[in-house]
Design brief:
single chain, mainly alpha, Substrate Binding Domain Of Dnak, Chain:A, Domain 2
Length: about 325
């Protein structure tokens, strides 16, 4: 912790001035505002991280990504989808951590606010007391000075009336002078008493001001340290998120290294092959050729067991009434 600097650098020659104290308070208020801004930043960043994580989960679950791939590349894609889910979960967990850090910042702000309140109440009271006593002292001074002027006028009046024959008028002037001297003595005592009281109030105010400076400087040191550590932790969390994501993506890279183009091609051929014989050439056919009724172009010319075989030779003779020839055609009657 640095040596105390506040108590030696925030004074003013004007006894009524609170410019030094006000400057410190303004700085502390700004520091508190800065903590609140960082707290809000953490909350917003947490919302972004959670939204991103949930959107990433939704994308992974709903959006197809190479779903018809096969064999080794299919396995790599499965690893990829799983790691995307893991990365999404990491972002959601980071959001929770950021909200926790924001909560700690809020608690720290409120703790310092309560600590400051006690000192501020004491300082506000002593400032009012100092201002009030200063006013009383100045009023006593004005009264004292007026009484002195009254006495001086009374003395001058007595001196001017030294040659007067009217004894009664002279006696009145002497009575007035005596009364003014008494008033001066009384006002002088009152003035000195107020000055003494003001000096005690001033000493008490200076003592409290020094205490307040020490308290406020300690608070500011604590705030700067807390803020610095909170920011350090925040960037560490972000860095760890990157490292964790990279470790997950490294698993995808390793699964991709296991992919084999040859194996995937062979797997596809073995699973989906349709045959190894290509179609026969398409040949020219003369319409009048005896072989015109041969197999259609592109079709196999081998035996077709599904076709009906040759007609059976009739067992009955040509003389059989059920058998007859018409223009060389055989007719069967069933």
């Amino acid at each position: 912790m640095t040596r105390s600097l506040f108590k030696g650098n925030f004074w003013s020659a004007d006894i009524l001035s609170t410019i030094g104290y006000d400057s410190i308070i303004q700085h502390l208020n700004n520091g508190r505002k800065n903590c609140k801004e960082f707290e809000d930043f953490l909350k917003e960043r947490a919302a972004i991280e959670e939204r991103y994580g949930r959107d990433l989960l939704s994308l992974s679950k709903k959006k197809p990504c190479g779903q018809s791939e096969i064999n080794t590349l299919k396995r790599a894609l499965e690893v990829f989808k799983q790691q995307v889910d893991n990365v999404a979960q990491c972002h959601i967990q980071l959001a929770q951590s950021l909200r926790e850090e924001a909560r700690k910042m809020e608690e720290f702000r409120e703790k310092q606010k309560l600590q400051r309140k006690k000192t501020e109440l004491v300082m506000d009271a002593i400032h009012k007391q100092k201002s009030l006593q200063f006013k009383k002292t100045m009023d006593a001074k004005k009264n004292y000075e007026q009484k002195c002027r009254d006495k001086d006028e009374a003395e001058q009046a007595v001196n001017r009336s030294a040659n007067l024959v009217n004894q009664k008028q002279q006696e009145k002037l002497f009575v007035k002078l005596a009364t003014s001297k008494t008033a001066v003595e009384d006002s002088d005592k009152a003035y000195m008493l107020h000055v003494s009281t003001l000096d005690k109030v001033r000493e008490e105010w200076q003592s409290e001001h020094i205490k307040a400076c020490e308290v406020f400087e300690a608070q500011e040191c604590e705030r700067i340290n807390f803020f610095r550590n909170a920011l350090w932790l925040h960037v560490n969390q972000l860095s760890q998120q990157c490292v964790t994501s990279d470790e997950m993506y490294e698993k995808v890279r390793k699964s991709l290294e296991m992919c084999s183009i040859q194996k995937d091609i062979e797997y596809f051929v073995n699973q989906r092959k349709t045959g190894q014989i290509p179609p026969a050439p398409i040949m020219y056919e003369n319409f009048y050729s005896p072989q015109r009724n041969a197999a259609p172009p592109g079709k196999a010319t081998g035996p077709n067991l599904a076709r009906r075989g040759p007609l059976p030779i009739p067992k009955s003779s040509p003389d059989d009434p059920d058998y007859a020839l018409v223009n060389d055609y055989s007719l069967l009657y069933q």
